[in-house]
Amino acid sequence: MPNQQKKILFCVAGVLSFACALGVVAALGTPRWMRATFLCTTGALLVNASGPELDKFTGEVHYGLFHGEGVRQCGLGARPFRFSFFPDLLPAVPVSVHINVLLFATMLAVLTMVVAGFFMYNAVGKPFETLHGPLGLYLLSFISGSCGCLVMILFASEVKIHHLSEKIANFKEGTFAYRTQSERYTTSFWVVFMCFFVHFLNGLLIRLAGFQFPFAKSKDAETTNVAADLMY
């Protein structure tokens, strides 16, 4: 591939990585990772509510990695509430899992920014070391993509396995009990997914620029090895 086209591909990959890094930084501070609805089972059972009447006992919550807000309803009107994970919900949430989500999300943002810089360096400069060259780009893209994958897996396990939404809804509620009805991932979670996808795409762009995948032997090298074997 001509050198000019390689520069264009690396510039595109660098811009995509930089945009992803900014997106992840913004996603870290927003309460738009998860939206859930929950039913006040205590109130619904007391009045034997069914059908449209259940709307009076259905609340919702949306939250991120640091804070969130929602509305509780138990037949007596809406009760808005706000919360923060640190320090309000520490007794209720799986702290180790949540901290790991924060850790890997921070690593994802930092490494994605480094990847963007390395792509730009390869586009406009003359890399002379392994870490600055294609192998370094493959390695950093793989590590960054792995961090993004871990963020999604850990957050999903916190929500689904540890029932995070239900614990938030029932936190400091001594009288009423709430049960989660529906959950869906929102904007910030999908930003992390897009960042993971961009790192996968970056690997394809590096290959498209004409650089072999790591540990993949070229045909010329294989031919040379075969010829050397025949000589001996």
TrEMBL record:
It comes from the Eukaryota. One of its GO terms (cellular component) is lamellipodium. Belongs to the clarin family. This is Clarin-1 isoform X2. The keyword Nuclease does not apply. The chain crosses the membrane at residues 97-123, 135-156, 189-209. The keyword Transmembrane applies. Its main location: membrane. One of its GO terms (biological process) is equilibrioception.
